[in-house]
Amino acid sequence: MKKLLIVAILFVFCSQTTIRPQAGADRDLLNEINKIKAIDNHAHPVKYVAEGEKPDDEFDALPLDVITPFPLPVRLSPTNAEFIRAWHDLYGYSHHDMTEAHMRELMAAKQNVLKQRGEGTPAWILDQLNIETMFANRVAMGRGLSAPRFRWVAFDDALIFPLSNEAAKRSNPDYKGFYPAEERLLKRYMSDLNVKALPPNVDAYMKTVVRPTLERQKRNGAVAIKFEAAYLRKLDFDNPDQAKARPTYARYVRGGEPPSADYKALQDSLFYYIAREAGRLGLAVHIHCIEGAGGFYRQSGSNPLLLESVFNDSELRKTNFVVIHGGYPFTKEMAGLMSKPNVYGDFSAQTFFTYPRELSEILRNWLEAYPDKILFGTDAFSFGPQVDWGEVAWLSNTTARQALALALTGMINDGEIDRARAMELARMVMHDNAAKLYGFK
Fold first, then answer.
1. What count of other Cβ atoms lies within 10 Å of the Cβ of residue 32?
2. CA distance 327 to 285
3. What is the model's pLDDT at position 22?
4. CA torsion, ordered 300, 303, 305, 310, to nearest 10 deg
């Protein structure tokens, strides 16, 4: 018995000593992936603003500066040394620190680029990153953000919250900061349509406000519409209860606070209507789904499984849904949801919440299941003049390509795919899946 025990211990020890961590990415494979001209499915680029002009304030429907400050993940800290590498690559920064004097040099270099390139600066940033097209999630497009380099993704949360939102504002400090922006945006959309007041019933509201807004966005170049609803409520959009939705709108459209359950039924009904209309117009529906930002964000409210009723609705099968940020940290759940014929996931923001190694494991799980449903994205946005949207795009773009190379290298080493298939998968993720989904030539 004692001999058997010794043999067993030696077997375990020998087995452990032969275990090796996954090797780094194949350098040749990474070099080829770096050459792929990418389609960035999700970002918030800032328009060109000349000296003396009003700063851009339309890069998001829900800017985070309206809520209580909250801790940033490590890689998004403005002091993250990775941004030094971004400055090297983008602006020829020659230093390896962030001293005040060297930051002045950096800002001077940035100003020189702006002066030399003017409205061409945003496209020049894409050129440096080998990004062919960037999807701009913005209230409206602006100077320097022209198609085909930049494609518009319009915000439509405002359309599903037409009644009093005071109860929601009282329930959550972040909601208190965010809802006023949506209320202003709804008024803006109505003004664009020359609609002076909310119609008396929900059918008229859908006919005179919702549908024309979507059609206007399509005419103005939108390729998709975006919901950031997880910042405003849970993503549990249930099959609409019209028995509650219609009378709720009619009763409270002129004032008063609707009961939360009744208002939810109306929101659900409007969401389903918008999703159907988007499908009719050929607009994809993008849904923010990640652990989120804000000290009072409800992470459990953005689990992608909450969207099952939407994805399983037979009337919505003509609408393509893209889960933005891939539902992180619920990425395995997201892999299962990609089995739906009209559901896709991008991995934007995971590109700075995680490092390449962890992201590679997520991508490998997705690649082994539904490689044709995966989209690249950066979630590039601005922290200000020093760490602007270009630097965040650089960080995400670099991380994404490294992670993809790691995942594919592991699959090659394990005999799952050969090198030719690895490059085919890389092109699908970085470009071809998006080109097919959005009908790009």
1. 16
2. 15
3. 56
4. 100
- pTM: predicted TM-score of the whole model, two decimal places: 0.93
- Tokens encoding 279: 């499908």
- pLDDT, average across residues 332-337: 97
Tokens of residue 42, six digits: 């999700």
Burial of residue 99 (CB within 10 Å: 0-12, 13-18, 19+) is exposed
Of 390, 372, 433, residue with least CA distance to 131: 390
pLDDT at 1 over 70: no
**CA separation for the pair 394, 216 (Å, rounded):** 33
Express each pLDDT in 71-96 by its tens digit. 989 999 999 999 999 999 999 999 99
Q: Reply yes or no on whether the pLDDT at 12 is more than 90.
A: no
User: For residues 55-83, b (16+ Cβ closer than 10 Å) or e, as one string?
Assistant: ebebbbbbebeebeeeeeeebbeeebebb
